[in-house]
Amino acid sequence: MRASVHARLGDIAASIAALEARFGKQLSVALALREQHGAGISHHKPRPPDAVLFAASTEDVREAVRICARHDTPIIPYGTGTSMEGHLAALHGGVCIDLSRMTKIIAVHAEDMDAVVEPGVTREALNSFIRDTGLFFSIDPGANASIGGMTATRASGTNAVRYGTMRENVMALKVVTADGELIAIGNRAKKSSMGYDLTRLFVGSEGTLGLITEITVKLHPQPQCIASAVCAFETMKGAVDTVIQTIQLGAPPARMELLDEFSISAVNKHSKMNLKVAPTLFIEFHGSDSAVGEHARSVQEIAAENGGGDFIWSLLPEERARLWKARHESGWAAREMRPGCMNWTTDACVPISQLAENILAARADLDSGAIPGRIIGHVGDGNFHVTYLVMPDLPHELAEAERLANRVVERAIACEGTASGEHGVGYGKIPHMRREHGAGIELMRAIKQALDPRNIMNPGKILPD
Fold first, then answer.
1. 425 with 153: CB under 8 angstroms?
2. Which pLDDT does position 4 carry in this prediction?
3. Cβ(102)–Cβ(118) under 8 Å?
4. Strand order of the sheet with strand 383-390?
5. What is the rounded average pLDDT for all residues in the chain?
6. Looking at the domain 224-423, which fold is it?
7. What would the pLDDT profile of 305-326 be if each residue is shown by its tens digit?
């Protein structure tokens, strides 16, 4: 008999009492703290848990899960709170297990180019720790997210076009299952053909199958040469066509980001820059001096044929850091263009040949609509984001943003793309799951039932009713 998608409402009060007896001040029921842990950085309505437990070790996580399992109490994991699709909302109440204090870098194997970390280690902290090894951790979603959270949501970001997503960069995991057992999956070998790929099952599971307490990640050599460039275009189509032709050339840059005119205006104001207000590509090249020069010349030629202007180069580390900081802060910059608004953001990912059609359609929707917005994207791998700037107290604006966002997703799925390239499902994109996966939903449900028969692990996320 198939279990209900909804968690069975257990004795949450009994769980909280038992957790308080075991963990003392590591547990909090303060309202402000609970509200913080029930929200991400998106438009989704916060839903606070009944309590927050700050875990300091894998053993803490095991004991907490066992206590909650005894009382059928929902569990919601928390990293740094930067998720986008309502992943942290305690839809059925329960206990949030905050993993941000688990910050040990357990091992760095420089010769093998991998590292083993606890889930609370952030990407910036890991890169700072390994700087002198000549290696770096490549995934850069923008926010200084925790590696545990990045694993759980299958994060990617600006470097994915060259280095891949978390799916390609996670080698092994330790996971606490729904009954409080600790399992080790994967290994440090570069490949394996032994059994089901359980590591990939948990990468992107969003806390619905277990809690990740240790991650082994790939590291990459720091490039000999890094060069960043900005190029403005006469049209959005010209910028996107440059992306497509560059990828088809077979020499993708390390980063290839698109910002539309609205985004450039916002970045100029927020970051005190003086970029031409036009559809613009931010590009970064990694490699040897000769390879970077060759690739840069090739992309400049392609850009010129598509209406691109001169490349504005940033070669010094501080110049490049300023450029990418401006790109990463473009979301906050956009909000400043309409005081009092909030960002209503969606993302989609499409086959590279369909990128221009999808982005131009999204831009046309914005241009003909009643609310302002912007388009940016990690367009080198077909992933783009649309942000609608809505007033949170105006229901008609919220409804219009949802309508336009649904159109973005529907077009992406219709051309064999996906409803999300990196934000994940949470509960925000559940309505699109069946259209994208069809009967595959029932297989996902069977996996969930097998691994979490009580449905206590982040219930209400990923799977539709």
1. no
2. 39
3. yes
4. 312-314, 225-232, 280-287, 255-259, 373-378, 383-390, 342-349
5. 94
6. Vanillyl-alcohol Oxidase; Chain A, domain 3 (3.40.462)
7. 999 999 998 888 999 999 999 9
Q: Which residues on neighbouring strands pair with residue 116, listed in sequence order? A: 107, 216
The tokens for 421 are 């390239």
Cα separation, 149 vs 121, whole angstroms: 10
The token pair at 341 is: 């608004």
Pairwise pLDDT comparison (41 vs 210), residue with the higher score: 210
- Is the distance from CB of 400 to CB of 279 less than 8 angstroms? no
Is the separation of the CB atoms in 64 and 105 below 8 Å? no
User: What are the distances in angstroms from CA 413 to CA 84, 331, 407, 417?
Assistant: 20, 25, 10, 5
Band of the pLDDT at 9, cuts 50, 70, 90?
low
Q: How far apart are the C-alpha atoms of 300 and 297, rounded to whole Å?
A: 5
Closest Cα partner for 265 from 333, 364, 343? 333
Strand partners, 418: 349
Contact yes or no for 163/138 (Cβ under 8 A): yes
- What percent helix, strand, coil does the chain show, rounded to 5? 40, 20, 40
Between 64 and 7, name the one with better pLDDT: 64
The letter for the amino acid at 312 is I
Residue 434, SS3? helix
Other CB atoms within 10 A of residue 273 CB: 14
CA distances from 314 to 158, 318, 329 (A): 17, 9, 18
Which residues touch 442 (CB under 8 Å, ≥6 apart)?
none
Alpha carbons 113 and 219: distance in angstroms, whole number: 5
Distance between the two ends of the chain, CA-based, in angstroms? 15
Q: How many CA atoms lie less than 13 Å away from 259 in the CB half-sphere? A: 31
What is 105-221's CATH number, 3.40.50.2000, 3.40.50.2300, 3.30.465.10, 3.40.50.1820? 3.30.465.10
Residue ranges of domains in the chain: 105-221, 224-423
Average pLDDT over residues 385-397: 96
Over the stretch 142-185, which tens digit does the pLDDT of each residue have?
889 999 999 999 999 999 999 999 999 999 999 999 999 999 99
Residue 159 contacts residue 139 (beta carbons within 8 Å): yes
| Residue 232, φ and ψ in degrees, nearest 5 | -90, 150
Residues 296 and 226 sit within 8 Å (Cβ to Cβ): no
Q: Which two tokens stand for residue 454?
A: 């009580």
> Which helix (H) or strand (E) is 270 found in, with range?
helix 261-271
What does residue 218 show for φ and ψ, rounded to 5 degrees?
-75, 145
Q: Are 2 and 445 in contact (CB under 8 A)?
A: yes
